[in-house]
Amino acid sequence: MAVFRALFSRRTFYAVTGSTLLGAGGGYYYLNSGPAYPSSSKETRRPPPPWTPPSREEMLNRLKATAPKQARSDPEEEEFDLLIVGGGATGAGCAVDAASRGLKVALVERDDFGAGTSSKSTKLVHGGVRYLQKAVMELDYEQYKLVREALHERRIFLQTAPYLSAMLPIMLPIYKYWQVPYYWAGCKMYDVLAGKENMESSYLMSKGKALETFPMLKSEGLVGALVYYDGQHNDSRMNTALIMSAVKAGATVANYCEVTDLHKGETGKLNGARLKDNLTGQEWNIRAKGIINATGPFADTLLTLDNPSHKPIVQPSSGVHITLPNYYSPRKMGLLDPATSDGRVIFFLPWQGNTIAGTTDSPATVTREPRAQEEDIRWILDEVRHYLAPDIKVRRGDVLSAWSGLRPLVRNPGASSTEGLVRNHMIHVSENGLVTIAGGKWTTYRAMAEETIDVAVKEFALESKAGKCVTDQLRLVGSDGWSRNMFIGLIQRYGLETEVAKHLSDNYGDRAWTVCSLASPTGANWPLHGIRIHPQYPFIEAEVRYAVRNEYAQTAIDVLSRRTRLSFLNVRAAITALPRVVDIMAEELNWSSSRKAAEIERAIRNFETMGLTSDEANICANLKEVSFAPLISEAKNQRRRIPVEKSGGGV
């Protein structure tokens, strides 16, 4: 009787009920935690409705339509609300934001879209573990705000461009027992700060499990590892998606279009600019109610046009990365060294089938084509060796590619090194009305754009049809009809190799259907379509045609470096693919033989900055069997520039 009474007492009832609810709640949380992949709102087994953007020629005509007021029937007819200068992440983000609010937007970029810093990042969408450490150790509230903002934006980033980004587990190897609680507490604080924005929680890993997951890791002295999650993306493809999303929202965009002068009205406020088409040399004026300077590390150049006596606001930092073969890292796990020999941080990440290692952080001077210096490459290799098993010999010859990107850090006169600067952004409005957005990083591009357009709307008294910013809910071009299983439909309809189909799905989203429609038959029993531009990589010839017709690619470098990522994955493979890419672009853009030769020369000069150890003669040796090799030699001897000729074709 006493046992019966104890089992069915009120206290027992409360204990059992509480335990059940706790277990159920915990189970529900566990089953529903982790990355939330938004389901597609459209059918993914068949092509989405076709959409062809206006050609580059049409875009230039829109920009040229601005005329003096007395020559127009409507004084406001062709005046843009905003002229955005700079086609990187920040500028493209501003264009998407402004166009989605219903503003009349023009964006110009003197090089290709994303040709600068925006295509040369670490490929991470991260909150900034390093900044969190500084926020705690130095009680720096600005660093803390930077981490909070970045974690919030990370979630939005992953949801608005799901096919271009994903969560990646990153391992911190632990070699001292006291580091276990230290790193665990830091990563848990990272999780707590993320709050509802958190996509995955960090966890500890035993030594055995760490070596099983990352077998090339140095085992001597290893205690265990801690794994946390951050986002990873394809930066230049993301940049292209932003540009095309802005176009779809009504923006007018043009690459290779440079601002050579700024115009002021009677009040001294900016009201337009002088533009130059760098492919033809043609110049014209454009009118705009407001101008936004989103030129990254080149922000001071435009500020000088506005005010020759201005004080510089950008302090550039060079970040060098290298690409190694895929056997240097697991396919789904990265590695972080939180304290290198000189106190910096280095990442070791799987990306696009290869491995990225970097980055350096040193003061730099602004240049349009920064070179990856040999000492930086060797420093990265030395740091990588510290974490790999002694039987793995990391050689200089294993470096497939290397690049240097200029970070547009906001200047802090009190900082002794660029590593001590915050990657935060700053918005500055000059006396003449030039709005400059400087600093920041890929993760927070959307928030930076929102803040910038808010300032511009207020500064220039613009009327926004849509009201406030909507980009936190706006899915980018390629996202609506995409799902993680879409590649199966591509295989079934076009007879593609699985690797190629996955690549197209993960880099073009639902636009992959259009890419496939341009694919030529292989002439083989399998695959039926999809001729590769290099046998070791999944890039196909149809991507070259698509880049020209639908993504404003104008040079071979545009295709090999930014529409595809071949030169970043393997610069020697890019050199091998170069002649065929030039041939295809010549068909699309009606290039002459001299233009083809100049394209190859220009591309090789660019590739020489990407970690090659061979000299120019050895590079040219790779092209001996190319039918127009004599033209290459002729172009090199005369050091020709790209000739002034009108591009034909669909862009």
Automatic annotation (TrEMBL):
Its main location: mitochondrion. It comes from the Eukaryota. GO terms for cellular component: mitochondrion. The keyword Oxidoreductase applies. Residues 81-446 form the FAD dependent oxidoreductase domain. It is found in: Mitochondrion. Its EC number is 1.1.5.3. Keywords: Calcium, FAD, Flavoprotein, Metal-binding, Mitochondrion, Oxidoreductase, Repeat, Transit peptide. Residues 37-56 are annotated as: Disordered. GO terms for biological process: glycerol-3-phosphate metabolic process. Residues 469-596 form the Alpha-glycerophosphate oxidase C-terminal domain. PROSITE patterns: FAD_G3PDH_1 (PS00977), FAD_G3PDH_2 (PS00978). Its cofactor is FAD. It is an enzyme of class 1 (oxidoreductase). It catalyses: a quinone + sn-glycerol 3-phosphate = dihydroxyacetone phosphate + a quinol. One of its GO terms (molecular function) is glycerol-3-phosphate dehydrogenase (quinone) activity. The keyword ATP-binding does not apply. PANTHER family: GLYCEROL-3-PHOSPHATE DEHYDROGENASE (PTHR11985), GLYCEROL-3-PHOSPHATE DEHYDROGENASE, MITOCHONDRIAL (PTHR11985:SF15). Belongs to the FAD-dependent glycerol-3-phosphate dehydrogenase family. This is Glycerol-3-phosphate dehydrogenase.
